[in-house]
Amino acid sequence: MNKITKLFSLESLLRICISILIIGILFKIQRWLYVDFVIVLTYFAIAILYFVRFWKKEQVSLIDYVKLILVTSWAFNGALAILHLNRYFLGDTVQIFFTIFIIMTISSPNNDRKTSIKNIASIVVLGIAMCTTFVGAIFKVMHYPSGSILLTVGVLTIVIWILKDLFWAK
């Protein structure tokens, strides 16, 4: 598969939308103007792309239906929250289907993830980035001087981790 085809595959477009959403949320925290439009647009793009990805699957199992309901209700809940509209039951739907998804994933017999040095290093980098983001968010709330820097570095590292498969060959 060449680079352009790989860049415009459904999985790649979903990763790009998730990255744009994460950066948009960072900009929302930093109080940038007009970022609400970007966040709402990416929420809807994620919902549509995930539905198309589900529709194209040849074999669909119960967990695929659970994931479809989870992702679409999460996306619409997020978009309605940004627009300050009533969400009624969407938050509860996300919580219920997330719980079902976790139970189904844990009880699945085919959890055969490969553990290599490369995967462990990748997980460690992601963990450090998530901790940096968390500490940056706390510092930002407490108005400490380096909160914005820690938050930005952590979020950008997570976005790079999400997009790494698109731009670096295996």
What would your notes on this structure say?
The chain is mainly α and 170 residues long. It has two domains: 1-112, no CATH class; 115-170. Helices cover 77% and strands 0% of the residues. The protein has seven helices and no strands. The longest helix has 25 residues, at 117-141. It is globular. The mean pLDDT is 83.
Q: How do the helices and strands line up, and which of them pair or pack?
A:
Layout: H1 3-7, H2 10-29, H3 35-56, H4 62-82, H5 90-106, H6 117-141, H7 147-167
Summary?
By secondary structure, the protein is mainly α. Helix content is 77%, strand content 0%.
Using brief descriptors, characterize the structure shown.
170 residues; mainly alpha; 2 domains; 7 helices
Cα radius of gyration in angstroms: 18 Å
Backbone structural class: mainly alpha
| Overall 3D form | globular
Along the chain, the helix and strand elements come as HHHHHHH
DSSP helix fraction: over 70%
Terminal Cα span:
12 Å
| Multimerization status | single chain
* Overall number of domains: 2
* Average pLDDT figure: 83
- The parts where pLDDT drops under 50 for at least 5 residues are none
Work out the number of β strands: 0
Largest sheet features: none
Binned strand content: under 5%
